[in-house]
Amino acid sequence: MSDLPFIRCLGCESTVFDPTRAACPGCGRCPVCGSRRFKTEVKTCPDCELPYCDCCGRCPQCAGLRYSEIITPCECGHPLDAEKLADLVRYEAAVGAIRRPTPWGCILAALTLSAVVLLLIYAWKG
User: Fold this and answer.
1) What's the pTM value of the predicted model, to 2 decimals?
2) Bridge-partner residues for 16, per DSSP?
3) Cα–Cα distances in angstroms (integers) from residue 15 to residues 12, 20, 23, 42, 49, in the given order
4) Among 110, 78, 107, which Cα is nearest to 92's?
5) Whole-number pLDDT of residue 103
């Protein structure tokens, strides 16, 4: 277990887990890029044959985590990329997360595109 605070999954939005895990135990996705990290979906614990919790991905008997066999880093570099890991903890911590910075460039581009479309519509009708 790491000393980092636990994070909330961006994929299933319900699971809280250690940010250094390669995949969310709830949905099996990479917590940074969201790509599916499993080949086949796992519903039951292989040791206990009990269904995993839909929310946290734990076995109710042995407390094992679903998708714990996924240990290789994701194509995006998680969990080995220290900068991505720090951003993940900063913005997605289950307790004490800060808001992500507003993407002003994207907002400005969307407003500009909207203005151009409105001008084209006005010119076409007028």
Assistant:
1) 0.69
2) 8
3) 7, 14, 11, 16, 21
4) 78
5) 73
| Rounded-to-integer distance, Cα 118 and Cα 18, Å | 47
Do the beta carbons of residue 76 and residue 30 sit within 8 Å?
yes
- Please state the separation of Cα 42 from the chain's center in Å: 18
Long-range contacts of 11-18 (CB under 8 A, 24+ apart): 14/55, 14/56, 15/55, 15/56, 15/57, 16/56, 16/94, 17/56, 17/57, 17/65
pLDDT value, residue 10: 83
Judged against a pLDDT cut of 70, whether residue 97 lies above it is answered with: no
pLDDT at 3: 66
